[in-house]
Specification:
By secondary structure, the chain is an alpha+beta fold. It contains three helices and five strands.
Length: about 140
């Protein structure tokens, strides 16, 4: 009896490197102008090259419920060693909410359990004249 083993699809890393918050924000600029809260995850290899960028959650005007399992599923499926998470605030306020803080800490703990690196957790918002502004939890010492 011959058993066929499914071949895993290997996603090649891109040339986008996310070693700094501005690199992550540049890739997340597709969130500009969105009136709903979104959460995207960028999966990375050991050199912080982006393997995949996935929209994980869509919320309402001022909140978005996030299931960490969905974020980690993308990282595991991509064979990633790291992930960067971006969450937008359409309100223009970059101040993290209590739930943003709790989520970032939960993701950091979960990543460590899975032997992954949480590269950063960014909150983004639109700038008045166009473009994107952000708050990096890594830079601010929040994770």
């Amino acid at each position: 009896m011959i058993v066929k083993i499914p071949v895993l699809e290997v996603r090649e890393p891109t040339e986008h490197i996310v070693s700094m918050p501005k690199h992550i924000a540049r890739i997340a600029n597709g969130m500009i102008g969105c009136a709903q809260e979104l959460v995207i995850v960028m999966t990375t290899d050991t050199q912080l090259r982006v393997i995949g960028t996935n929209l994980c959650h869509m919320g309402g005007l001022d909140q978005c419920t996030v299931d960490p399992r969905v974020l980690f599923r993308h990282a595991i499926a991509d064979g990633a060693t790291g992930l960067a998470v971006v969450h937008n605030h359409p309100s223009g306020n970059l101040k993290p909410s209590t739930s943003d803080m709790a989520l970032a800490k939960k993701l950091d703990q979960g990543a460590k359990l899975l032997n992954l690196t949480l590269v950063d957790f960014l909150i983004t918002t639109d700038l008045a004249g166009g473009g994107i502004d952000w708050l990096s939890f890594k830079t601010e010492g929040l994770i």
